[in-house]
Specification:
By secondary structure, this protein is an alpha/beta fold. It is built from nine helices and seven strands.
Length: about 230
């Protein structure tokens, strides 16, 4: 059964208002910008970033787990995981190269963040029109890994006016996503979200929005086999 057929089968289980909300949110979703978390230590920071990604219409989140296992803090994430695609890299000793290679093959510019270093671009000057990009945030303790820094296509920094050189990772992510999402919208940049991906995402969201949605989906698929 195609996603288009599933959408029509699931539609009667949702109110018209709910469907309008899902379709409205889908129209605002983007894959032109994605976020990578490298070895985040604190679950509340990772969860806050996830919530921020969802709020700014980021569909894909990539999580690199080297020394630290990715954990979600339910009181902070507030259900945001239901609406995101979370890609975890945790099967190798060093998962950073695996993630970076996968994103580059998919056409993403790797953009690492750092409060200092050579060749960094101020956030306000970052060009969102040069192609889709992945914002990579480092761990709370050591920041971006040497490998990520060396293999990045671009390096980004948030200009500071105070004595403290850096912000908390969740605050930094919120500032970066707010600024770059505004740039994307102002420039009229395409979402890089294919129609096929949109339909698949809508099916997922519809299932999440229906009481016992997974059971409803299972019954629909079984009926289709009869």
């Amino acid at each position: 059964m195609t996603d288009s057929e599933l959408i029509e089968k699931l539609r009667p289980f949702l109110t018209e208002k709910r469907m309008e909300t899902l379709e409205s949110m889908l129209a605002k979703r983007t894959k032109h910008m994605t976020v990578v978390l490298e070895n985040i230590f604190h679950s509340h920071n990772a969860s806050a970033v996830m919530r921020t990604c969802e709020c700014f219409g980021i569909q894909d989140l990539h999580v690199i787990e080297n020394n630290n296992q990715f954990q979600i803090h339910p009181d902070i994430v507030r259900g945001a995981t239901k609406w995101l695609n979370i890609n975890r890299y945790c099967n190798s000793t060093d998962n950073t190269p695996v993630c970076i290679d996968a994103l580059k093959k998919d056409g993403y510019r790797i953009v690492v963040t750092s409060p200092h270093g050579e060749g960094v671009t101020n956030l306000e000057d970052f060009d969102v029109t040069k192609g889709k990009f992945a914002i990579m945030m480092g761990s709370e303790k050591v920041g971006i890994s040497d490998y990520a820094w060396e293999h990045a296509d671009e390096r980004l920094t948030i200009p500071m006016c105070g004595f403290t050189e850096s912000l908390n990772i969740s605050v930094s992510t919120a500032i970066i996503l707010h600024t770059l999402r505004a740039k994307i919208d102002a420039a009229g940049v395409e979402s890089d979200f294919s129609e096929e991906e949109k339909r698949s995402t809508l099916v997922h969201w519809m299932v999440e929005s229906i009481s016992s949605g997974k059971e409803v989906l299972r019954r629909i698929l079984e009926e289709n086999l009869d």
